[in-house]
Amino acid sequence: MVVVMHAAASEAEVSDVVDRVTHAGGEAFISRGASRTIIGLIGDLDHFGDLGLDGMPGVDHTVRISTPYKLVSRDHHPDRSTVWLGSGETHTPIGPGVLTVMAGPCAVETEEQTLEAAELARQLGATVLRGGAYKPRTSPYAFQGLGRRGLEILADVRSEIGLPIVTEIVDAADVDIIAEHADMLQIGTRNMANFALLQAVGSAGKPVLLKRGMSATIEEWLMAAEYVAQRGNLEIVLCERGIRTFETATRNTLDISAVPVAQALSHLPVIVDPSHSGGRRELVEPLSRAAVAVGADGLLIDVHPHPESARVDGAQALAAEDITEIAESLTALATTVGRSYSAPAR
Amino acid sequence: MVVVMHAAASEAEVSDVVDRVTHAGGEAFISRGASRTIIGLIGDLDHFGDLGLDGMPGVDHTVRISTPYKLVSRDHHPDRSTVWLGSGETHTPIGPGVLTVMAGPCAVETEEQTLEAAELARQLGATVLRGGAYKPRTSPYAFQGLGRRGLEILADVRSEIGLPIVTEIVDAADVDIIAEHADMLQIGTRNMANFALLQAVGSAGKPVLLKRGMSATIEEWLMAAEYVAQRGNLEIVLCERGIRTFETATRNTLDISAVPVAQALSHLPVIVDPSHSGGRRELVEPLSRAAVAVGADGLLIDVHPHPESARVDGAQALAAEDITEIAESLTALATTVGRSYSAPAR
Amino acid sequence: MVVVMHAAASEAEVSDVVDRVTHAGGEAFISRGASRTIIGLIGDLDHFGDLGLDGMPGVDHTVRISTPYKLVSRDHHPDRSTVWLGSGETHTPIGPGVLTVMAGPCAVETEEQTLEAAELARQLGATVLRGGAYKPRTSPYAFQGLGRRGLEILADVRSEIGLPIVTEIVDAADVDIIAEHADMLQIGTRNMANFALLQAVGSAGKPVLLKRGMSATIEEWLMAAEYVAQRGNLEIVLCERGIRTFETATRNTLDISAVPVAQALSHLPVIVDPSHSGGRRELVEPLSRAAVAVGADGLLIDVHPHPESARVDGAQALAAEDITEIAESLTALATTVGRSYSAPAR
Amino acid sequence: MVVVMHAAASEAEVSDVVDRVTHAGGEAFISRGASRTIIGLIGDLDHFGDLGLDGMPGVDHTVRISTPYKLVSRDHHPDRSTVWLGSGETHTPIGPGVLTVMAGPCAVETEEQTLEAAELARQLGATVLRGGAYKPRTSPYAFQGLGRRGLEILADVRSEIGLPIVTEIVDAADVDIIAEHADMLQIGTRNMANFALLQAVGSAGKPVLLKRGMSATIEEWLMAAEYVAQRGNLEIVLCERGIRTFETATRNTLDISAVPVAQALSHLPVIVDPSHSGGRRELVEPLSRAAVAVGADGLLIDVHPHPESARVDGAQALAAEDITEIAESLTALATTVGRSYSAPAR
Predict the structure, then answer these.
(1) What residues in A contact B309, CB-CB < 8 Å?
(2) Number of domains making up chain B
């Protein structure tokens, strides 16, 4: 950490900073410049953060040099991790060398719709079925998901189709019931900084899919993962799903650079959600291509047997007629980048 | 709602949209332009949202015309509301004609610190004491607040100093204990879209202070308020606390326009947090002046008896030596804009 | 400047950085931390920037500590400046202690319209007349202004009404003709980083009104001012006019904090454009109040005798019926904050 | 265009809007809803824009339905265009079916450096040499480029190495001299809305490379292209180079979705600048892969023989040791997406 003093800071103020750091067991190096003094600190960063140096007289601001997360960083674990989902026949890896497709309906509506969507997912080469039972909706008047009934439908479809399931959790009170029915718990973009939920999920004993908050920096995203990791759960997959910018032509702006940046900083797998990023069906294929090419470990894709009557986000769901083209695209690209992926021949 | 068809949409696709709308009890007006057809819809908007028109063949996009919130809108309640806090001697209004200052420490650390901060708050003319017992922190390694012990300290200080208390809630499981100790429950910026928490708080029978999400639009903020209102609780105060932009000179960018805009759309009181917006002590006074002048119904201000050793956000907390100047500033401005406010003579 | 080395940087790479700095006449202090080494530099910053330290092997990134602008900074000129416009009877100050209102039509359309608008401006207490002859428009098919004829109208109106004139310049080739007709040259938001234009204007011998770029940081804005200053012209007034964010309820987001921040970093006067910030007539008055209260040195306001038929931005122009209320508002606030301003009694 | 009236708009105000539209030769359809009336307009959009409907009494806001650009749109020219650069042996296409790499030094420093960089560019499979002679720099104290001497160096290197040249223009006064030396004129991100420059370049008779403004929407970018096209020059290549967001881990946020979105709206070729987007050497390769996979028509890449001593942006320039890996990557991906590209064997 570097402490930058005000141009007008006094010698006594500089000494006070140095004293507080050294009393806390750190070391401080003073560099006196033409216009101001800076103080370089060496020691345990978290401790310095709690020292309140920012609020001391004469301090202009502080600059952090090292990363504030540990367990999820590559300093802690230099090799990239693989997270495993499900068990037995449905045991599925997410990580280097694999292109894992997670697909399914944005919201579970009926058993029939979910089964048809799961069939589309399979045709897309998905090895994980996604489906929402609890839906966080901007409007309280919008369809909020089937809740427990949705979980049961997902579990039924899993036993029929043989794919492990990922579903979103929005309330810490639902951890047990969801962990009982699903193979992976998803934290949505609106809850990325819901620390109580992160901690509850960290203790649930299931892998976690952590979406980036819609205006979160990559560092804040990794800090959210650290909340989960701190509870002893390192089975975390990061999901980039677009950030909020001034551009209105797309629902969100897919931050494609976040994939290599997060993979360089953290050992956790990073996947991309092209459906929520673009918000439009015709963008799913090109954004999926970009994601695979940039090095993403997987994709999270909305599919729906009847997008024209979907209760949630129909505009972005792939329909049956879109599947073949995108499966061919992914097959070609996965080969090019050296990742295993296969969609069934049709 | 207006449905904009693709330039290449067929007559059959246009008819399908009209049919779905009329079957659902709405009316549809077709306007055929030189390059494309648009369809104006009349009827219950929420219903149209669930019709999934966005996903229909031939539809380019839909444009919503009316607002999606009801209970918190001025259509529902044309006059601006006043929210009352506490009872008996501490009965305190927030709304038109009053400038309500809420002040206190960002985090409760000790009884002594809280009492000293409360004294500073009183000198600042505060009629509400703020203090954090449960702190949502970006880092799991940072001080997370005293929890229940913090609530007890706040309650003790209230009985000593006679100010009603507002404190943040971060977990729906804590609703009862916090509602028991505090006079108003605060939803922080990170939880604005934590709908489970909004609903829990909506049922708690206490006024709610709802901070705007750091990248939430004003409309999404009002939708979050609608979640609380839908549970029968219209005692809601909105708090603008700065939004996330590319500017790094300030912690956040205070969206001062949000005050008149939200007041025009909603009947709820709107206050401003100049401490978290600017993130720097020297900006608290000018931003408070701007907030009062623009028409804010109140201010939420960090004060600390010893900012240089504050465990959280010391850089933005006012200290004893700052109080007089800002109290004088607020006195002059409150008079100018016709709001009642008074700080004790020193 | 601080150079942060990669965690894996070698001793030789550290030495190379130190050598390059010392050969260039600077000093370098090495601080070795647990996980990485940082190097503090002392000396002439601009020189270090050109040393290309960012691109050296082993360097992770560099952190600048001091400000990159000089002539416009308060280090260069600790007292806040006053800029004077016009001469003789129209000699008008912009700076501390004064609230300077610049008002007029967004675009000059006819002599009659400009004269009527100038009359409204006078009623608003304006001491400077604004009016656009060359309009930078997003669409090449939109009205681009009257050009030279517009300048002549402005000059005619000036001699009739006795107010100095500010008008926008969009092409360096027009410097002479505009400088001949106007008292102050305006650089619009789209041209803030048009360095050729900044340099041309810096040599024109007239005061400059420099609008902030719509996504410029405050530091970049001050660097743009430095381009003008470097040509020997320190008669610069900064104008905050809203920045681009995700919020769509307003045309731009007025960054009210930019006023005190820019005033603390630079000695130049800072004014606010409430018309382009909000983009809506009903926001002009509350945003003007906020601007005066926060400490702005002036306001730039669109007025139009017939907004309903304005060729540019009619939605945000004040009309005759709005003038009295805002003039009263400004009178009360100017008194409160101790700035001289007066609008004629009506 | 749709005109949305205020909830409280009177019948007379509705009639006034309809009258103004019909008098101007358009048609207006009234839809009366439960809470407000909307008016659909049919006719020439640009004309409606100039009618000033936004400023009329009773009008809340207007919603545009069709696109405001014409010549660059796919409505005007349904097939995607190919732009040709240079002539004779250096005749080079940019468009569908080709992956055009433009590479070279960010700034021309010396003839030797430019020649070495051109050699690296050739090894990267570049068919166009980029190089900056006039550099727009945030700081007036930074290296501003060699100017005319830089152009001469570029022309010399062209005759030696046989690649057409693209170079940036920052001042309309330089159009003739640059058009004389270069094969393509580049408009940089800071000048995207410098309409005087766009018009000057539109008349220069050379192909134009138009970078997206750092906070420009895709629509504004296409409007800027329309300014060039309107002068009779449709030889325009669009370049996405990252937009400004809150994320600080990258220099800008590459908006990868902008490629398919712009290609769907416009017939012009779209290329990507991975160097300025990420701002870091190690991101150039993954971002280039993403760009090719998403369907970009080309890449604009910084290379430098000695990045550690580059005078501008050394941190993002590829060096000799990076070339082979990225050339192999591009070869594999170009094949996968069916575009012609070849780098010389080494």
Answers:
(1) 52, 55
(2) 2
Give chain D's mean pLDDT. 91
From A32, A63, A94, the end of a domain falls on: A63
Torsion of CA B171, A262, A291, A214, to 10 degrees: 30
Instruction: Quick: pLDDT tens for B176-215.
Output: 999 999 999 999 999 999 999 999 999 999 999 999 999 9
Structure tokens at A284: 């799913």
- Looking at residue C23, its amino acid is H
Strand partners, C39: C3, C30
Q: Are the CB atoms for D6 and D38 separated by under 8 Å?
A: no
Asked whether residue A10 is domain-assigned, the answer is yes
A107-133: pLDDT as tens digits: 999 999 999 999 999 999 999 999 999
Closest Cα in chain B, distance from residue C257 (Å): 7
Distance from CA of B329 to the nearest CA of C (A): 9
Q: What pLDDT, on the 0 to 100 scale, is given for residue D176?
A: 95
pLDDT for residue C114 is more than 60: yes
Round to whole Å and give the CA distance between C93 and D104: 50
Mutate one of D3, D31, D36, D64 to test the B interface: name it (highest B CB count within 10 A): D31
In this structure, what is the dihedral angle of CA atoms C256, C259, C262, C266, given to the nearest 10 degrees? 170
Q: How far apart are CA D55 and CA D33, in angstroms?
A: 22
pTM: 0.92
pLDDT, tens only, A185-198: 999 999 999 999 99
Say yes or no for a CB contact (<8 Å) between D65 and B4: yes
- The string of DSSP letters for D10-53 reads -HHHHHHHHHHHHHTT-EEEEEE-SS-EEEEEES-HHHHHHTTG
**Is the domain of D45 the same as that of D92?**
no
Kindly state whether residue A90 falls inside one of the protein's structural domains: yes
Contact (CB, 8 A) for A216 and A262: no
Are A250 and D243 within 8 A, CB to CB? no
> Do C149 and C29 share a structural domain?
no
| Yes or no, beta carbons of D310 and C49 under 8 Å apart | no
Q: Are residue B134 and residue B9 in the same domain, yes or no?
A: no
- CATH number, residue A101: 3.20.20.70
What's the burial of D157, exposed, middle or buried (CB within 10 Å: 0-12/13-18/19+)? Answer: buried
Residues D88-143 have pLDDT tens digits of 878 999 999 999 999 999 999 999 999 999 999 999 999 999 999 998 888 888 88
pLDDT digits (tens, 9 = 90+) for B288-339: 999 999 999 999 999 999 988 888 888 889 988 899 999 999 999 999 999 9
Q: Which of B2, B42, B246 sits opposite D34 (nearest CB)?
A: B42
Considering the domain architecture, whether residues C208 and C127 belong to the same structural domain is answered as yes
B237 phi/psi in degrees, rounded to 5: -115, 130
B16: Cα separation from own chain's centroid = 41
Whether C55 and C96 map to the same domain: the answer is no
pLDDT of residue A244: 96
Q: B128: closest CA among B205, B202, B182, B191?
A: B182
* Closest of A177, A176, A125 to residue A149, by C-alpha: A177
Looking at residue D187, what is its pLDDT?
98
Range of the domain at A50: 2-63
Query: Considering the domain boundaries, does residue C76 fall inside one?
Result: no
Tokens of B143: 């001080």
- Nearest residue on chain D to B67, judged by CA atoms? D35
In the predicted model, is pLDDT for residue B87 greater than 70? yes
B254, B138: one domain: yes
Are both D137 and D50 inside the same structural domain?
no
Q: What would the two tokens of residue A33 be?
A: 């410049």
Strands C165-168 and C128-130: parallel
The ipTM, to two decimals, is 0.91
What number of CA atoms fall less than 13 Å from residue B136's CA on the CB side?
23
Asked whether residue A286 falls in the same domain as residue A206, the answer is yes
Residue D95 placed within a domain: yes
Amino acid at the residue B62: T
